[in-house]
Amino acid sequence: MSALFISDLHLCEQRAGTLRAFFAFLQGPARSVQALYILGDLFEYWAGDDDATPLGNAVGNAVGDALAAFAETGASVFFLPGNRDFLLGESFARRARLQILPDPALIDLGGEAVLLSHGDILCTDDEHYQSFRRLVRDPAWQRAFLERPLAQRKQVIEGLRSQSETAKQEKTMEIMDVNASAVEALLREHGYPALIHGHTHRPAHHVHVVDGRSCERWVLADWHDDAPYLRWDGAGPPVALRFRPKPDG
Questions:
Q1: How far apart are the first and last CA of the chain?
Q2: Domains and CATH numbers, the chain
Q3: What is the CA radius of gyration of the chain?
Q4: Can you tell me the distance from the alpha carbon of 144 to that of 190, in angstroms, rounded to the nearest whole number?
Q5: Per the omega criterion (within 30 degrees of 0), is the bond before 104 cis?
Q6: pTM surpassing 0.90?
Q7: Which end of the chain is less packed: N or C, by CB atoms within 10 Å?
Q8: 151, burial (CB in 10 Å: exposed 0-12, middle 13-18, buried 19+)
Q9: What percent of the chain has pLDDT over 90?
C-alpha cells in the first residue's frame, strides 16, 4: 500500500504559487501512489459548499475539479477537516470524489495501524482555542451557521481569522504546539499506533515511549510554493520529501 500525506496548504487566491504547486503535485508525485490523504487546512477558509462555484470561490471550484480528475486515475483521496475548512461537506466531497474522515481516524497501511489527525485536538495547552473548537465543531452550531447567507458567513469568518492572527501574537510557541500528555493519551486510546498529523507547522519525526511501547509520530510541513509531503510505501519507514514544480514558462 503506497500513500502520500499532506496538510496545511491554505489554498486561496492570494497564494497563487501554492495553488500551482498543488496542481503540479497532483500531476506529479501523487500519480505514483494508491491513496492521497489530506490532513486538514487544504483551504485557507471554507464558508460552505455553496461557495465552491465559478462565480463564488474560484479556488474551491478549481481544486474540486482537479481532485476529481485525479481520482479518475484510480487513486483514492481522503480528507480530514482542519481548523480552517471544517465546514467542507458531503456536497463538495462528492464533486471532488474524496472521502471525509473523522478526526482522529485509525487506518491500516499494509498491515500497520496508523492514526491520522489534523493535530489541533492535541494542542490542549491552548484552552481558549479548545473552547472555540468545541463550539464550532458542534453539529447544531454548524447547521445554524450554514443557514446564514453566504456573504454573512464570509464576513464572520474574516473577523474570526483576524482575531486568530491577533491572538497568536500573544501566545507562546509552546502553548500552540501539541501537549505531550495529550499525544500519549491518544496513542494509548488507539492501541499504540504510529501517528501522522499537521497543524503545528513544525515538521519533524518524534518517537514516544508510551507504557513501554515505542510509537512514531510524524508532523507534516505546511505548504508554500513547493509541495512537502510524507510518502509511505510499507517497504520501509515513511520518507519526508518535497516536490518543487518547474517555474512557469
A1: 36
A2: 3-243 (3.60.21.10)
A3: 18
A4: 33
A5: yes
A6: yes
A7: C
A8: exposed
A9: 83
